[in-house]
Amino acid sequence: MIPVAGQTVLSAQGMRAAEQAMFDAGIEPTALMQRAGEAVAQAVARLAAGRPVLILCGPGNNGGDGYVAAATLKRLGVPVRIAATGEPKSDNAIWARDLWAGPVERLEDAEAAPILVDALFGIGLSRALDAATTTGLSRLAQSASLRMALDLPSGVGSDDGRLFGDVPRFDVTLALGAVKPAHLLQPAAAIMGAVRLLDIGVSAEGHMRVLDKPSLPEPDALSHKYSRGLVAIVAGSMSGASELAATAAARAGAGYVLHLSDHAEKAGASPHAIVRRNFSPDALMDDRIGAIVVGPGLGRDDGARAKLGAAMGSGRPLVIDGDALRLIDVEGLRAHIGPKILTPHGGEFAHLFGEADGAKPDLTRQAAKRSGAVVVHKGADTVIAAPDGRTILCPEANAWLSTAGTGDVLAGAIGAMLAAGLDPMDAAAAGVWLHGQAARRCGRAFIADDLADALSAVRG
Q: CA-CA distances (angstroms) from residue 435 to 366, 386, 443, 454?
């Protein structure tokens, strides 16, 4: 069982293409099903620890994997039973059913077992399960002490993370061959439990991957404050937001943080390591600036528009957040020739790019291409996309991040990574990773100030 961090993510179509490539290379479909079922059996045997197992098999290839897993578990001496929705329908599933010499119970009549394995339906599902199947699955899941899903819990949309009806929560989901978008997209991700990848020999290649620990910039003996990155924070009417962004940039590793406001002479806020000066367009033309963060607490009046215009006109790398996302338009974004990163939450994303139906990775990728910017589409299932199509799906975020100011902290952290010289996509990913790790360190009921301060500990 392989942790999913850094792994390639494949859509249902991409997974089918990867499997077809194996078949074209001479691998028989039944041989791939054998690999999958045996890998599942090994994982289940390890987690079951000798307790009785009940595998629920559907009519297709997901069910076929379940039959192979059951036959393998039986050979391993694990007490195992099968309950099914009916007879298998695909040729491969029929082949797999013949490997199982024991009885097959009706799902509606099956008695519960301590270990439940859902092998009813996998990728490609686009509708809710029928009432009898939903009732049976829910009943057996409620009675199990450990609930495991084979590839995906039944009733989940593989590519968009939709839930088709009432789907039970699982403790472990075993991804076969590749991670699927639903393993990381909400609301499906919330019911997956721990997701682990099983290697079945599929060559998973694509433009999507799971967020992984980044290679963070580190100072050396020759480093100085400017080489580590100068981040300029453009302040507005709500100074607390820009102060949070500035603190986060410093705590994330920037060598110099410049807070530009209309009343710098009155500033007495800490940390005192942050340099505070009065805003002017000329202040943004300093060649030593590695990134400008504009938007946190900026406001939406004419003064805010003028500041955003000055940031856009500077040509410096930009992190555009908060209010600035309400002031800019897509055409204006494309006019900025420098690197740029947008950090919208759902409402800001819809305002900037319009309301649209579709999977979050697809929408984010389209937005990145349209704007010419790396887009960090924030949420419990943050998605990062670059104009060239590279996409990163992020694990479920700490729910306590749902408090004021945490987005300002993220903007500052990303600004520090961008100023340090990272490629915009890498800077965005590094900032999101640091933000998530800081939230984990903070635990529960933290505030954004705690989150910003925790970035130093994460860097340590």
A: 25, 19, 13, 9
What whole-number distance in Å separates Cα of residue 296 and Cα of residue 329? 17
Burial (CB count <10 Å: 0-12, 13-18, 19+), residue 212 = middle
Residues constituting the chain: 460
Distance from C-alpha of 127 to C-alpha of 396, rounded to nearest angstrom: 24
* pLDDT, tens digit, 9 for 90 and up, residues 397-451: 999 999 999 999 999 999 999 999 999 999 999 999 999 999 999 999 999 999 9
DSSP 386: -
**For 251-276, how does the pLDDT look when each residue is reduced to its tens digit (9 = 90+)?**
999 999 999 999 876 656 778 899 99
Burial (0-12, 13-18, 19+ Cβ within 10 Å), 266: exposed
Helices 239-252 + 448-459 axis angle, to 10? 10
Q: Which domains does the chain have, with CATH numbers?
A: 2-199 (3.40.50.10260), 230-459 (3.40.1190.20)
